[in-house]
Design brief:
Elements (H helix, E strand, L loop, with lengths): L1 H13 L3 H12 L4 H7 L6 H40 L18 H15 L3 E2 L5 E3 H4 L10 H5 L16 E3 L5 H10 L3 E10 L10 E11 L4 H16 L6 E8 L2 E12 L6 E2 L4 E11 L1 H6 L8 E8 H9 L12 H7 L16
Parallel strand pairs: 1-4
Antiparallel strand pairs: 2-3, 4-5, 5-10, 6-7, 7-8, 7-9, 9-10
Helix pairs in contact: 1-4, 2-4, 3-4, 5-11
Bound molecules: phenylalanine.
Phenylalanine binds next to strand 9 and strand 10.
Catalytic activity: tRNA(Phe) + L-phenylalanine + ATP = L-phenylalanyl-tRNA(Phe) + AMP + diphosphate + H(+)
Protein name: Phenylalanine--tRNA ligase alpha subunit
InterPro entries: aa-tRNA-synth_II, aa-tRNA-synth_II/BPL/LPL, Phe-tRNA-synth_IIc_asu, Phe-tRNA_ligase_II_N, Phe_tRNA_ligase_alpha1_bac, Phenylalanyl-tRNA_Synthase, tRNA-bd_arm
Length: 357
């Protein structure tokens, strides 16, 4: 019995894994195992022999079973230790920069101008890109026969014969949001509306979809002087050039009276465009005092309230600020272009944190 004991305890101690342990168990204490067979021999013994051999065999069986159980736990612990050693993960390592996206210049500039106008008390308004021709034209004092409708190269939505709903267009400018904001908020109000607009036009400086930001301020005692100050503040902050010069040229829009187009100072020396220096001028927006008929269309009494409005090309000022020569590239989705002109996703522009880095 001492031989059996040292044989099996030795094998158990040397077992490399659970499968080996199971083989040992079957050989020792399984139904036909060596210890079990010995126990069957108890019946052939004399009562005296049995009294000695019985308890000794039982004790041996117990000892082997508990050695098997202890070894099983030890093997499990070792297996877990081994897994922990080989499968560790350093969570303090930085993420892999593969497939890192960038922010499109139009989105970047939209964030920048929103931060600047928010600082001056303008909130962001939105309107639909598909709008009725009433919002896009009539309410803005552009009646059906007005040449401005043709000038804007409008995309009209198809209507089946017999469909009597009002005609819808892809909005040709963000100005319909003036009307929607006046209806919704009443006076006084101060909003900007950045967003996409559509015109059937395509060359180096025109794409069928582009972006504008509308501005509208309605209050008592609003004048062109307020408009001029707001725009000059904006350009100084946006181009990060103090005292950048602007030029207001008398112009005409059906929805403003008087109207002005605004240019910013630039130079073209050596074929290179530089903003804020030299004696050249670059047109960047249309503006004026909101026409009384437009205030009335928005449900605001023109006897009591005045306002100024402006509409500026976002893609245009993005090209100027970041030196991007071709507007069409904005919408090509060329990854090399996006990586070159894109911005880091986590640098949100603020006036105190810096607009662009
Ligand atoms: N909506 C005009 C355009 O698209 C710009 C504009 C807006 C002019 C507001 C005056 C006032 O050209």
């Amino acid at each position: 019995m001492d031989d059996l004991k040292s044989k099996y305890l030795g094998q158990i101690a040397d077992a490399a894994d659970e499968a080996a342990l199971e083989t040992i168990r079957v050989a020792a204490v399984g139904k036909k195992g060596e210890v079990s067979l010995k126990m069957r021999e108890l019946g052939k013994m004399t009562p005296e022999e049995r009294q000695v051999a019985g308890p000794a065999l039982n004790a041996l069986k117990d000892e082997i079973n508990s050695a098997l159980a202890a070894k099983k736990v030890a093997l499990g612990d070792a297996a877990l230790d081994e897994r922990l050693r080989t499968e560790w993960l350093d969570v303090t390592l930085p993420g892999r920069p593969r497939r890192q996206g960038t922010v499109h210049p139009v989105s970047q500039v939209t964030e920048e101008l929103t931060a600047i106008f928010a600082e001056m008390g303008f909130s962001v308004a939105e309107g639909p890109r598909i709008d009725t021709d009433w919002y896009n034209f009539d309410a803005l004092n552009i009646p059906g026969h007005h040449p401005a409708r043709a000038e804007m190269d409008t995309f009209y939505m198809h209507r089946a014969a017999g469909d009597n709903r009002p005609p819808h267009v892809l909005r040709t400018h963000t100005s319909p949001v003036q009307i929607r904001s006046m209806e919704k908020m009443g006076a006084p109000l101060r909003i900007i509306c950045p967003g996409g607009v559509y015109r059937a036009d395509y060359d180096q400086t025109h794409t069928p979809m582009f972006h504008q930001v509308e501005g509208l301020a309605v209050d008592k005692d609003i004048s062109m002087a307020n408009l001029k100050w707001v725009l000059e503040e904006f350009f100084a902050a946006f181009f990060e050039i103090d005292g950048i010069k602007t030029r207001f040229r008398a112009s005409h829009f059906p929805f403003t009276e008087p109207s002005a187009e605004v240019d910013i100072q630039c130079s073209w020396e050596g074929g290179q465009l530089k903003i804020g220096e030299g004696d050249g001028w670059l047109e960047v927006l249309g503006s004026g005092m909101v026409h009384p008929k437009v205030l009335a269309a928005g449900g605001i009494d023109p006897e009591q309230w005045q306002g100024f409005a402006f509409g500026m090309g976002i893609d245009r000022i993005a090209m100027l600020k970041y030196g991007i020569p071709d507007l069409r590239a904005f919408f090509d989705s060329d990854l090399r272009w996006l990586r070159h002109y894109g911005f880091a996703g986590l640098d949100v522009p603020t006036l105190h944190g810096g607009l662009s880095r």
